[in-house]
Amino acid sequence: MNRLLIASLDRFGPLRDSVRDDLLACSQEVERFEPGQVIAPVGARSRLRLLARGLAVKQLELADGGRQIFGVATPGDLIDLGGLYVGLDHEVRALGVCETRMTTAHELRTLLRAHPNLLAALCRAVLTEAQQQRNWMVGLGRRTAAARAANLFCEVYWRQSVLRLAGERKCDFPAVQADIADALGLSVVHVHRVLRGLRDEGLATLRNGVLSIGDWEGLARLGGFDPERLKPQQEPSDSVSRPSGA
């Protein structure tokens, strides 16, 4: 697990050797979750929970029993960064069968005090997550229903394909129509019509937990999908951060 954690954090700027050594020495706890189980509840503090297998969603439950999904987590994601210094203000729930691995809160605090390089990487991870959530918010506010679904499908497929977890135009997406409705701010009836439209136009099909992409270019164009918005934030190079002639 610790090597997977290092690989995940390396995306946000190279870790120093001393950080890698201490991460390799950390203890780990493995947990497994069935679909629908809460992985990290509201108020949970960060323990560098790493999603090792499966898909999960970040969501807020409303007083009337409704919910808003505002993010999908794929393997390799750190899913509790919102609880780094304060408790999570949302919950993370398993979409399918999931496995997570994490360290202890005490070890995490010790690592952060000892390694500013690790803290900087985690800060960039939080900024990346915030960027992705802004993109999600823009979609809810300004995209049509079909464009919202297309963008969601593109994101789910692209993120798994980067990890080599997707097949030839196919990937796991164990979401039911109620999940998609809560992610897109639509009714289940509306989602049914949208999914049927995407299928009839040959763009994408969701069946039995498998997302099949029929026309990637068309789907990305409809959804206004831009993979640059999903790429990890990294430390600026000297050539970017320094003024000309400095």
From TrEMBL:
GO BP: regulation of DNA-templated transcription
Keyword Transcription regulation: yes
Keywords: DNA-binding, Transcription, Transcription regulation
InterPro entries per UniProt: cNMP-bd_dom_sf (IPR018490), HTH_CRP (IPR012318), RmlC-like_jellyroll (IPR014710), WH-like_DNA-bd_sf (IPR036388), WH_DNA-bd_sf (IPR036390)
Every HTH crp-type domain range: 149-222
Polar residues bias spans: 234-246
Residues in coiled coil: none
Alphabetized SUPFAM superfamilies for the sequence: cAMP-binding domain-like, Winged helix' DNA-binding domain
GO MF term set: DNA binding
Keyword set includes DNA-binding: yes
Location of the region described as Disordered in the Swiss-Prot/TrEMBL record: 226-246
Highest taxon in the source lineage: Bacteria
Name of the protein this chain belongs to: Crp/Fnr family transcriptional regulator
